[in-house]
Amino acid sequence: MDKKILFDIVTSSVREVVPELESHPFESEDDLVGLGANSLDRAEIVNLTLEKLALNIPRVELIDAKTIGGLVDVLHSRL
Amino acid sequence: MAERVPGGVGIEAINAYGGAASIPVLDLFRGRRLDPERFSNLMMQERGVALPFEDPVTNAVNAARPILDAMSPEARERIELLVTSSESGVDFSKSISSYAHEHLGLSRHCRFLEVKQACYAATGALQLALGYIASGVSPGAKALVIATDVTLVDESGLYSEPAMGTGGVAVLLGDEPRVMKMDLGAFGNYSYDVFDTARPSPEIDIGDVDRSLFTYLDCLKHSFAAYGRRVDGVDFVSTFDYLAMHTPFAGLVKAGHRKMMRELTPCDVDEIEADFGRRVKPSLQYPSLVGNLCSGSVYLSLCSIIDTIKPERSARVGMFSYGSGCSSEFFSGVIGPESVSALAGLDIGGHLRGRRQLTFDQYVELLKENLRCLVPTKNRDVDVERYLPLVTRTASRPRMLALRRVVDYHRQYEWV
Amino acid sequence: MGPVGIEAMNAFCGIARLDVLQLATHRGLDTSRFANLLMEEKTVPLPYEDPVTYGVNAARPILDQLTAAERDSIELLVACTESSFDFGKAMSTYLHQHLGLSRNCRLIELKSACYSGVAGLQMAVNFILSGVSPGAKALVVASDLSRFSIAEGGDASTEDWSFAEPSSGAGAVAMLVSDTPRVFRVDVGANGYYGYEVMDTCRPVADSEAGDADLSLLSYLDCCENAFREYTRRVPAANYAESFGYLAFHTPFGGMVKGAHRTMMRKFSGKNRGDIEADFQRRVAPGLSYCQRVGNIMGATMALSLLGTIDHGDFATAQRIGCFSYGSGCSSEFFSGVVTQEGQQRQRALGLGEALGRRQQLSMPDYDALLKGNGLVRFGTRNAELDFGVVSSIRPGGWGRPLLFLSAIRDFHRDYQWIS
């Protein structure tokens, strides 16, 4: 899967979880904490993204991805 | 005695680990200038000494791994409960069992936890685990109980320094009790609050030895009485072919036996001595090479009986477990010829005799490092290679787990 | 196999509380998304309270309802905690002493992070089921606390506590387990375990947590899903959306449970967002009622959630409750049991909700003073006399029943005192 598509899936999850970011122009370097997502929000973003991708991997394996781009990269490597 | 599971439940396999090194106790007495008159009271030859890459996790894993290596993958998958018992916790929240689970390669569908109750903890854990097997909630399930401890005693502990050991005992429980079939329902507990010995910090053991000896004897008497109220027709002499008792040092076991014999039988001094030699002494062989293993102690005594006596027919063993604080239990089980073959492959005696013998100076040097074992440290590296030459390998123990480093409080291990 | 489960249970969650939104504001945390954490208040442990006092104060009302012969039939006492204050001497010995239990009782202390209470409950259930001592009872006491503290001259806002401070509570739940499970009858053999080694949160030094909150949340979710899958392997007919009238989960904070439930519903029911929210309000929210007022009490939290469910649910017909416990490190379990109207009536009579309301509100200056270590005893304290007037607005006593408090530490041994 194209990283661009993954990027869109991740950012759509972020928007769903943190509606305040509806019109935020996402960058690859955006880190989730900086975007105002708390721990719970970050877990839910991971959850939603995995579900959209129908990807069944342990969530804990995504722990090191702290930015949007980081999340895209690790997901890409697991597809 | 209740028997819900046909064939009974109990110990399927057992193994002891007594530290990578040892020191002759007499050398320790000389080095510390302790009164040699009191040496004979300990009835000890050697005590186990840890190397600086050993900790409660490696002791647990090094005791249990040989048992697991001898099992089929299907049998290993049936281990549904792992309990570690220790007074050497490496974290207040994270259990030793969580590390042991990883390095033993157990199933993720396994309940694991750690228990603490001073030297009684392993027996408490064993009884809880037997409950899981005997309850029948998961037919065919097995449970692994591992007693693991390290000693933190230095010269300030005076005569307790030569008596303390390090290591672990792993006990596999299930419904094929080749090593020992437990007498279910035959137990007696005795517990009350007393402040005899304690470990109020990760660096010190404190204790009121006199009080501890008194409560040990008091608990032996009363837990046996409680046992007698549950089991008809119990006699301290004729019911038990052997006795395995918690062994902080052999002299106390001897005193305990003598007290019971005096109070419960008409035997005279010579008869008591003969009875001790016959029923109790076989349990002291391994403890005299290891020292007090804390919660694993009584199970090391059991191994000692089986390997020393090599029973040719069924024999009942009375077991007494005591933990400071205090809580205690008298219980029993049956061993036989199959117990001997079940233990043979693990060669506990060979492992203990094969440990590297240290000089007093080497011991003192290592002790400084060993006392850091439980002190919370955010990051540290352990120089495994430096101490590795001190390790002797035996056929039954080709490899061991070692603490390599601590990263952000997380202990990291590797096989060496 | 005969019935087994909880005959009686009770919680005690201290005498002082703090409004956590006020605390978050005071700490300058970003509170814009605070509401979704579903936290209201937390219990703050006073210097003269410790895991023993919480445990004894929770268990005492249960024991007072028993006859002397019934009390003497308690043959197993399990203390579940990650807040102990000695490596060797177990907390169970203190509980045993101050609860006046029989000396013919097996004592044990158990540690498995926040899973300890459920691990203890299940060990007790197995003891009863094994039939080794017909008619025996077991007492399981889960007791935990966190004490935050600031080094001399330190400043709370610079410490990296984020949301750990508002979510950490203090308290205990006691459960009497027997073959007459009037409150919660355990579904025997219906358990799913899931555990593996992970360093999410830990407690390398006494009284305070360290670790990675994100990792812990992800691990919680992984475990919830996999423990439930293992449960369905043993109970093939089980269905997450249909089989359980209520759900009681380990509650580090309410929002975590809401998130986990949402994930489970999406995974196992295919229901839409609106239905999931309604289902949450109906089946899960009752279990959060007390947890939101106390904070995370670690090993005792799942049991506190069960108490909330029992007190606030509708048991006109008997209901099956699905329970999930998670402990960092990590180990977890999904299991279930049944509660009837009688169980609810018995629990409501103990008045837990009123007791929580009776806790005194701490002012922010009083709370900060406690954090600076006023009158505090720590792990390893050798000698101390506790000052019952350390917070001038709060006095121990006047609770309507005697409560146990820590009065002194003499050469590491802790002395306690009953105060009416």
From TrEMBL, chain B:
UniProt xrefs under InterPro entries: HMG_CoA_synt_C_dom, HMG_CoA_synth_N, Thiolase-like
Q: Which domain of life is it from?
A: Bacteria
Q: Which GO terms describe its biological process?
A: acetyl-CoA metabolic process
Entry keywords, A to Z: Transferase
Gene3D superfamilies linked:
3.40.47.10
Give the family this protein belongs to, as stated in its UniProt record: Belongs to the thiolase-like superfamily. HMG-CoA synthase family.
Q: Domain Hydroxymethylglutaryl-coenzyme A synthase N-terminal spans what residues?
A: 79-175
Gene Ontology terms for molecular function:
hydroxymethylglutaryl-CoA synthase activity
Source organism of this protein record: Myxococcus xanthus (strain DK1622)
Tell me the ranges covered by the Hydroxymethylglutaryl-coenzyme A synthase C-terminal domain, including all copies. Answer: 276-369
Q: What is this protein called?
A: Polyketide TA biosynthesis protein TaF
